[in-house]
Amino acid sequence: MQLAVVLTEKTQHPMIFLSGLGLWALSTWIGTFIVCGRKSLSTNFPYFQRFSRISPQNRRLILLSWSASSIFFLRLLFSALKVFTLLVFFTQVNEKDENLSWKAIGYRRPDPKAIDGDENTEQSGPLCNGIIELNRSKDVALNKLQRLGFPVSKPISKKSKIKSLNPSFIIKCDAVVVGSGSGGGVVAGVLAEAGYKVLVLEKGSYVARNDLSLLEGKTLDEMYLGHGVLGTRYMDILMLAGSTVGGGSTINWSASIRTPPHVVKEWSQNHKLELFGSEKYQKALDIVCKKMGVQSEFEHEGFNNMILRKGCEELGYPVETIPRNAASDHDCGFCCLGCRDGKKKGTSETWLVDLIESGNGVILPECEAIKVMINEKDGRTAAGVAFTFENDHGQRETAIVESKVTVVACGALSTPPLLKTSGLKNPNIGKHLHLHPVVMAWGYFPADSWPEAEKKSYEGAIMTAMSRIVSNSEESGYGAIIQTPSLHPGIFSALMPWRSGTDIKNRLCKFSRTAHIFALARDRGSGTVNATNDISYRVEDSEEENLSRGMEKALRILAGAGAEEIGTHHREGRVLNVKESSREELEKFVKEESSRRLKYLENPVCSAHQMGSCRMGVDPKSSAVNPMGECWEVEGLFVADSSVFPTALGVNPMVTVQATAYCTAQSLVQFLAKNK
User: What pTM was computed for the model?
Assistant: First the structure.
């Protein structure tokens, strides 16, 4: 039942109808024969049968044949069935918030009530006084807006654009910010502290600290874009992006890396963006890092990072400590599901707090911007935003925010569609999308070996170690970095190879002692955002080569750290027992596995960083926004998120997004002062 809900109601993807078509076909005898061929036939009359009647052995052979089929539809069907079935199975919970398989695989979520937050802050979090929830009681919400200094009125305008939207009410403010993540949150906080009335629209929900479940399935559903099920057009890249108050900074892995010097040089010199080579930008980096409490200490290194660090040291590879926006004692391993104790300093613990405490700002969660309003008199001045929300009766309503400036910060996957539906025509909007494609290797470390038995793969600080062994930062600047992920049972199972029911069970039984290391490529190639659920992207040959080199190093690091078994996520699911293999066998395995192709759904490719789809530049012919972040076509319309990056960044983008947004916020302060 849950699988059906995910496929029919929660997954919005242009190819999802093919999966539905395939499942329908498998429910009929003729469809089963067409899709499965002779292996679906019975030895008894009438010979033809539905998929559910086929023997388990033949079903397994059929599924494996799909995974390697020359017919792309069958590969897609296999991939979709594997990902969705395993993700749902290992994330579903009963009325006690338990999954019976978790004990068998050694997984245990922490008791949310046992996690203590800052004793000076309520467990509900520091934003509760500024959250306006229109879906609970619209009248109460509008009255609160009025009390906080945001005029609310009934629409009386005869303007055709406003009239056509049939808005229920209009809110007035100085600045409306669409999105509350690392871009929008910074801009909102800076403008509010400067004395301007700021209203933040957030498509995602607000989950207070004491409401965080720390359940993988529930969190993916509530706090991730696309309910955590997001892919490119042909599902060849699986993506994760935040969609909640605080955006990606609420559910990211804490890595807080400054813009690399070679990227600063490339953006300032090759792209002629003087901002990035300026003292102003360096000061912005200092300010945002200080605001987030970025530091590099840790008290207890987690399982995956211990292995990455040891493997690098054994092999003589360079390894460094990743700065984090969290205290040295913050090592829960569950930050990808929200930070219940508030020690990770995302925007909901920093810039948005400034917004609320200034008395000049409010946040409206579960309000989706549908159109930037353009002044009808001149046709090129932003006048605010139209948005929709669900009222307390379950009905959709439309409202309008009228503002002096409009800031779009929905993220690289959602900002372009909003600008396009608002009538902007710049051809660069939605183009030049970069994804930092990622591939992973894994290593199994039995409980009777190092690291010590109490160490679990899903616990400990998510990111503390990194290697730049194949980053090419001193040469082309395009290569791959080596880091570790946060994988809980659902995503772990969805990524691991499936060879049979028994095989996947055996892999999951090793879950808590299986380390993952990934290679992340700085991509030259790019894709296109047609809509949030329609994203085209192709891994270029150069990126595939860099990922191959990164995969090779990842496998060697795992073996060097003492893994008993190593492997990748390639569909064939090959495993090497390192302890029982000769050096020659290890070399052969590493070479073969790291050189396998990534395209055509052969190997899962992932992305947690999306950028560049409204890139900044000095010429409207090659960019979507100017060096101040303002759209070329519309005055007073600014973009402040990762979509403005001129190229891929090559490292975790949070600090760069915040520093760039901070500079954009300074331009906005000047713009508002000039247009009082």
Answer: 0.95
